[in-house]
Amino acid sequence: MKKSIEIGNLVLKNNILMAPMSGVSDLPFRMIVNKFSPGLVFSEMIASRALIEQNKKTIRMLKKNTKEILAIQIAGCDPQIMANAAMICENEGADILDINMGCPVKKVTNGYAGSALMKNEDLAIRILESVKKSIKIPLTLKMRTGWDENSRNAPKLARIAEKIGVSLITIHGRTRCQMYRGSSDWNFIKRVKNSVNIPVIANGDVKNVEDAQNILKISKADGIMIGRGSYGKPWIFNQILDSFEDNKKQIKINLKELILEHFNLNIEHYGNEIGVKNFRKHLGWYSKKLNNSNMFRAKVNSVEDKDEIEKCIKTFF
Ligand SMILES: Cc1cc2nc3c(=O)[nH]c(=O)nc-3n(C[C@H](O)[C@H](O)[C@H](O)COP(=O)(O)O)c2cc1C
């Protein structure tokens, strides 16, 4: 593992990062993940326009735990709105501001945001410049390899971003047109790594310790970002970190206690009604591959009462 990454004045405690994931990397999940020592965690993608319009749900996404080192990620296509949104994030305590140039979802790309910015380099540059000027905290960028197979311009955009003052770049090794098909091209990430002097983080398809070792070997990147690999196993960060160290210090996990804590944090954050509903996916992930998990999932998907869910968790795990 390479030496700890520096992002502006911040020195990360390790190089295993938790990915921004809409609907997943919210405050409750990050608080659970943070028990397992990721080097940095990212918020869900936050729409810049909704942020400056003070949308209530959007503002809730800015909530931060004082102990976490948090990169807040914003998305949008208007340089001035993005700059204003970035300032709000800085004022709310973001340690790092991340720009999303990777989201493949039509609702986002149709508005020229997310990965659509990769095929509009002029606009991408104006956004980076405008946001960079507006904040004092470090600016980072997350993107894919390009829009499609014939336009994999991540190395070029990375060089431009470095010149503008971006401090770190994460590459998900797929094109926008791939969505989540095929596999992340860890070799291509090396091309980005070789194009810049700032840290490059490799992302895509890391599900276990072996993948983590391989992605670093192949991409030569400075660190790893993990998204779906943390579904139902937030301890993956610690497991991977441990695999790089001689002095192994496996953390003991009490799954039942961990899930109950996550559930209660979720209820606290969202309230009973939404908190019960949006925790079902986590219960699905936590119970995956366990005996009778089908029955457990069917049960919790039909229950709406918080105390009932708690009982189900206690009985099943
Ligand atoms: C449910 C879900 C939500 C995501 N939301 C975001 C997001 O808000 N911002 C972002 O940059 N990437 C987002 N991504 C992409 C991930 O950050 C990551 O790049 C991708 O999943 C590949 O990494 P993985 O194989 O480790 O999951 C999302 C992915 C998933 C599966």
Tell me what you see in this structure.
- By secondary structure, the chain is α/β, with parallel strands linked by helices.
- 44% of the residues lie in helices and 16% in strands.
- The protein has two domains: 6-243, Alpha-Beta Barrel (TIM Barrel), CATH 3.20.20.70; 255-316, Non-ribosomal Peptide Synthetase Peptidyl Carrier Protein, Chain A (Orthogonal Bundle), CATH 1.10.1200.80.
- The strands form two sheets. Strands 3-4-5-6-7-8-9-10 form an eight-stranded parallel β-barrel, surrounded by seven helices. A two-stranded antiparallel ribbon has the order 1-2.
- The model has no long low-confidence stretch (mean pLDDT 96).
- Flavin mononucleotide is lined by residues 19-24, 44-45, 73, 100, 102-103, 142, 172, 203-206, 226-229.
**Number of discrete helical segments:** 15
Give the ligands present. flavin mononucleotide
| CATH architecture tag of the largest domain | Alpha-Beta Barrel
Span from first to last CA?
Answer: 35 Å
How many domains would you count in the coordinates?
A: 2
The named CATH superfamily of the largest domain: Aldolase class I
Order of helices and strands: EEEHEHHEHEHHEHEHEHEHHHHHH
Low-confidence stretches: none
Total strand segments? 10
Radius of gyration equals 19 Å
Helical coverage, percent range:
40-55%
Task: Indicate the CATH class of the largest domain.
Answer: Alpha Beta
The residue-averaged pLDDT reads 96
The structure class reads: alpha/beta
CATH topology of the largest domain: TIM Barrel
Largest sheet: 8 strands, parallel, barrel
